[in-house]
Design goal:
Blueprint (H helix, E strand, L loop, with lengths): L1 H16 L13 H4 L7 E2 L8 E4 L3 E6 L2 E6 H6 L7 E2 L4 E2 L14 E5 L2 E5 L5 E5 H7 L1 H5 L11 H7 L4 E2 H6 L1 H14 L1 E5 L5 H11 L2 E2 L6 E4 L15 E4 L11 E10 L5 E5 H11 L1 H9 L2 E9 L2 E9 L2 E3 L6 E4 L14 H18 L6 E3 L6 E5 L3 E5 L5 E9 L1 H10 L5
Parallel strand pairs: 10-11
Antiparallel strand pairs: 1-2, 2-3, 3-4, 5-6, 7-8, 8-9, 11-22, 12-24, 13-24, 14-23, 15-22, 15-24, 16-21, 16-23, 17-18, 19-20
Helix pairs in contact: 10-11, 10-12, 11-12
The structure holds N-trimethyllysine, 2-oxoglutaric acid and fe (ii) ion (FE2).
C-alpha cells in the first residue's frame, strides 16, 4: 500500500517535471478545459516595434527582438519589480514567493509602448520592459556565454603576444588592473612583471584583485623541496599537468606563483589550457565529453607528515558544465589526487576510463604545452578551474611563494571594472 502510494507520487512528480501537468487543480474537469481560451496573437500598434504576444493558459509567449520567449506565470509574478515586491536600493526581493498561488494567471495583459502590464487577480500590477524580458529570459540567456574566452594551444597563445602588466601600473592604475584582468579572463593565465621578489610584495599583488583564500597550506605559502608537507609538490620531482585542490568541494579558483630563487637546473613550469583540450574531446567524441561531465568522482588528500594531519575529500565530475547552455566552467583533473572510484558501476567505469584517456591524450599533445621558466620578479596567475599546471624536475635550491585566491572575489573585481565575468 505504502509502496503503491509512493510510486504514484513518483509518477506524478515525473509528470510535473516533464511539464505534463500544469498544476494540480487543472486535473479536475472544469469549465476552462471545456472552453479553452480563444488563442489569438496580439500585435503592437507600431509595426516597427515588431512585438507579438499570446496569453496561453499556462504561460505567456512573447516574440520580440528575434527571440521567441515563454514565461511561466509564477515566474512573471515572482520577478515583479514594483516597490512592494522588490527593494531597488538593495536589489533584493521583498515578495514572499511562497505566497504566490502556483496556478496564478493574469486577469489582463496590456502592452503600452515598450512596457507590458500584467494585472493579477488581486489587482496587483506588474510591469516589464520588453528589453528587460529579453535580457532576463531563459531563451535570451541560452544564446549567451557567461564567460567569453579565447581557447589556446602553445601557438595560439604565443601568436597572441599577450602583454604582461607592470607591477607599478597593476597596483596604481585602473587601466593596468583592467588590462591584466581582461587577459586573465580571456586566456586563464596572466603575468605581472618587475615585482620585487619577496613574499610581501606578492601578497600585495594578490590583495589588489581578491581576498586570499586561506587553506591547509596557509594564507601565503612559501615552499622548497624540503618535504615539509606530505605532497610531491614539496620535492624536486617532475609533476605532470594537473589542477590543484581537486579534493576540495570547491577547488581553489586562482593560483598565484612567484619563484623567489632558483640556483640549479630544470624546474620549468608547464601550462595547458584544459578547456581547449576539452573542446577537442567535444568535437571528436561528444558522448565522452558528456560522460566526463556526468560521472562524479572523488579526489582525496591524506597527509600525515610531522605535525600535519589532513584528510580532504572533494566530489565532482572532471568537466563541470552549466546545464542550460552546456558551457564548461571548471575542469578537475589531477591523476595523483584522484581517489578510489567506487561511485560508478563497472560498465560505466570502463567507458569513463576511455573518455578520460581521450581527454588525457589531448592534454598531453606537445602542441598544447606552453613551457615557461618562472623567474624572480615575474608573477604568474593561473585560473585553476581551467588551466592545468605542471613542472619539470629540478636540481638545486628553489623557493616558490604564492597563494590561492577566491574566485568570487576576482570576478567581483573584474565586474566592478566593467568586464564581463
Ligand atoms: C601550492 N602548494 C604548494 C601550496 C600546494 C600544493 C598542493 C599539491 C596538491 N597535490 C594539489 O594538487 O592540490
Ligand atoms: O613547483 C612548482 O612549480 C609547482 C608545484 C605545484 O604543482 C604546486 O605547488 O601546486
Ligand atoms: Fe599544483
Amino acid at each position: 500500500m505504502w509502496c503503491r502510494r509512493l510510486s504514484h507520487l513518483q509518477s506524478r512528480l515525473q509528470d510535473l517535471l516533464r511539464g505534463r501537468v500544469t498544476c494540480w487543480a487543472l486535473q479536475q474537469p472544469n469549465f476552462k478545459s471545456l472552453f479553452p481560451l480563444a488563442i489569438h496573437w496580439h500585435h503592437t500598434a507600431s509595426k516597427s516595434l515588431n512585438c507579438v504576444w499570446q496569453q496561453h493558459e499556462d504561460h505567456f509567449e512573447l516574440q520580440y527582438a528575434n527571440t521567441v520567449m515563454r514565461f511561466d506565470y509564477v515566474w512573471l509574478r515572482d520577478h515583479c519589480r514594483s516597490a512592494s515586491c522588490y527593494n531597488s536600493k538593495t536589489h533584493q526581493r521583498s515578495l514572499d514567493t511562497a505566497s504566490v498561488d502556483l496556478c496564478i494567471q493574469p486577469k489582463t495583459i496590456r502592452l503600452d509602448e515598450t512596457t507590458l502590464f500584467f494585472t493579477w487577480p488581486d489587482g496587483h500590477v506588474t510591469r516589464y520592459d520588453l528589453d528587460w524580458l529579453v535580457k532576463n529570459s531563459y531563451e535570451g540567456q541560452k544564446q549567451k556565454v557567461i564567460q567569453p574566452r579565447i581557447l589556446w594551444n602553445a601557438e595560439i597563445y604565443q601568436q597572441a603576444q599577450v602583454p604582461s602588466v607592470d607591477f607599478q601600473s597593476f597596483l596604481e592604475t585602473k587601466e593596468g588592473l583592467k588590462n591584466f584582468l581582461q587577459n586573465f579572463l580571456l586566456y586563464g593565465i596572466a603575468f605581472v612583471e618587475n615585482v620585487p621578489p619577496t613574499q610581501e610584495h606578492t601578497e600585495k599583488l594578490a590583495e589588489r584583485i581578491s581576498l586570499i583564500r586561506e587553506t591547509i597550506y596557509g594564507r601565503m605559502w612559501y615552499f622548497t623541496s624540503d618535504f615539509s608537507r606530505g605532497d610531491t609538490a614539496y620535492t624536486k620531482l617532475a609533476l605532470d599537468r594537473h589542477t590543484d585542490t581537486t579534493y576540495f568541494q570547491e577547488p581553489c579558483g586562482i593560483q598565484v606563483f612567484h619563484c623567489l630563487k632558483h640556483e640549479g637546473t630544470g624546474g620549468r613550469t608547464l601550462l595547458v589550457d584544459g578547456f581547449y583540450a576539452a573542446e577537442q574531446v567535444l568535437q571528436k567524441a561528444p558522448e565522452e565529453f558528456e560522460l566526463l561531465s556526468n560521472v562524479p568522482l572523488k579526489h582525496e588528500y591524506i597527509e600525515n607528515v610531522g605535525e600535519c594531519h589532513n584528510h580532504m575529500i572533494g566530489v565532482g565530475p572532471v568537466l563541470n558544465i552549466y546545464p542550460w547552455n552546456k558551457e564548461l566552467y571548471m575542469i578537475r583533473y589531477n591523476n595523483y589526487d584522484r581517489a578510489v572510484i567506487n561511485t560508478v558501476p563497472y560498465d560505466v567505469v570502463h567507458r569513463w576510463y576511455t573518455a578520460h584517456r581521450t581527454l588525457t591524450i589531448e592534454l598531453r599533445k606537445p602542441e598544447n604545452e606552453f613551457w615557461v621558466k618562472l623567474k624572480p620578479g615575474r608573477v604568474l596567475f593561473i585560473d585553476n578551474w581551467r588551466v592545468l599546471h605542471g613542472r619539470e624536475s629540478f636540481t638545486g635550491y628553489r623557493q616558490l611563494c604564492g597563494c590561492y585566491l577566491t574566485r568570487d572575489d576576482v570576478l567581483n573585481t573584474a565586474r566592478l571594472l566593467g568586464l564581463q565575468a
